[in-house]
Amino acid sequence: MRWRGRKQTILALARRLLDVLVGVGTRDACLAIRADDQLENRFAPLTLPRWETDTNASSLLASFAASFPLLRPSPITSAEMADHLLTRSEGTIGELAHLLTDAAVAAIESGKEAVNQRTLLLAQYAGPTERRRLFERELT
Q: pTM here?
């Protein structure tokens, strides 16, 4: 096969691969997709487990800590701290990112320059359950 033919094949394959659509969401999002037969036939559900305190979570937390522009190390990889963070974020990576980002901002604003128990208390973060409760309270 000449290069021109290979190039066209590669470009056609790339165009196909770029058309991949992935939907990510909670149980409610899955139920919404299941409500429509056409959507349900096009999307195969894949359940991701919530993060738990283990070596994978410790590695994830170390990556977060390394990415913070803080002057002091953040002791977030300890089992106790990991447990606290994963409980408060309800074990999802998006919530964990929000919590740690808010805590990093609090660390900078307070001059502590590290994510620790104190800066976690100062963080302007409300977890999913707390946000739902606040929203439901506003409805009544």
A: 0.72
